[in-house]
Structures are given as structure tokens and as C-alpha cells.
Write a structure and sequence with these properties.
Organism: Streptomyces gossypii
Shape: globular
Number of strands: 2
Keywords: Membrane, Transmembrane, Transmembrane helix
Pfam family, one: PAP2
Largest sheet: 2 strands, antiparallel
Number of domains: 1
InterPro entries: PAP2/HPO, PAP2/HPO_sf
Protein name: Phosphatase PAP2 family protein
Order of helices and strands: HHHHHHHHEE
Length: 212
Amino acid sequence: MAPVLCVLAAVLIALVAVGWDPLLDVDESLARELHSFALAHPGWTKTARIFTDWVWDTWTMRALLTAAVLWMCWRAQWSAAIRLAIAGACGTAAQQGLKAAIGRDRPQWAEPVDSAHYAAMPSGHAMSAAFVCGLLLWLLRYLRVPAPLWWTAVTVAGVSVAGVSFTRIYLGVHWLTDVVVGCLLGAAIAACAGARFRVRRRTTGKTAEGVE
């Protein structure tokens, strides 16, 4: 799964880099329509900023992942804690490295409704939400939580990733392809972290951790 996601992201990055007009036209058209709506509906825009700056902010996501790592340490489940920590660090490093390497400009507006720093692609908010939510879902699966809790978490994760992706375009700080690439790469990181990891049962009946 992870290689497929990375290839799709690489294709989109390459198309943007070579300036493929059909894709760039979609980016610009959607950005302009949403920006016009944001200017005309300040109440919705304020709500979007609250969600993107607090609920789905990159620091909020990092705090959630840090809490999960500490929880696994407290439970003495070191393999899971280390895997989560490494995946989180790799995700953040990849995000910043790609931004610097690609160097894509953000949308520019005469009347901006929000601002952001660094380059546009990939979207840091979308990428962070994708890999943190993916890692937390992997953790819940690893812990074998009850089905109702699992599906609730899946719903919350899906809404969070889709929601932050939308708000970044809506607020005029990212293009559509920025958030799509961010989601693809974030999901790839989460998939890599969970690959080939399983829970083994000791003969005593206690849960142990192992890597195949």
C-alpha cells in the first residue's frame, strides 16, 4: 500500500513541477471559487480558522501522537512506542524536507483571509493529520479495541483528514494538489509504520509484541 501511495504522490508532484496545465487549472479554479465564498461568508471562515488552527493544527496532531507514545511507554509496550515515535519524527522531517525541495508558492490573494508560512507542497496540516490519524488507528487495532470504538475512531479520523484538507484550500493557503499529496504521503508513512507488525500471544496467555 505504501509504495502505491508514494508513487501517486510522486506523479502529482512531477505534474505540478512540469506545469501540467489541466491540473494547475483545477487547482486555480477551485481555489478562486472557495476564496470568493470565504470572503462572502466571514462566519464560516472564522469557524474554519478555529478548526484548522486549533482542532486540526499540526501541533495538536503532534501532541496527540506524543500522548500515545507516552501511554505505550507507561504500559511498557516499547516496540509500539518506538515505532510511533520514529514514524512521527520521519513524518515531520519528510514534510519539511519536501516543502523545501519542491518550493511551491502558495496562492496569493488581494484580500487574504488567512496566512501560512513555508512552501505550499505538501500541506503540512493534511500530511500531519493523515499520518497521525493513521498511526492512532493502527495503535487501536494493535490494542484490539472493541468494534464500536474502532469504527468511531475511523469516522473521527476520516472527518479530521477531510476537514483539515478542505479548510486549508478554503482559507486560501493551499492548492488542492498540496493537500492531496500531503494526505497520500501521510497515509504512506502510517502504512509503513504498521506493516508487518503484529501481536503475538505467549503460551502464558499474556500479550507480547513482535515484528515478523
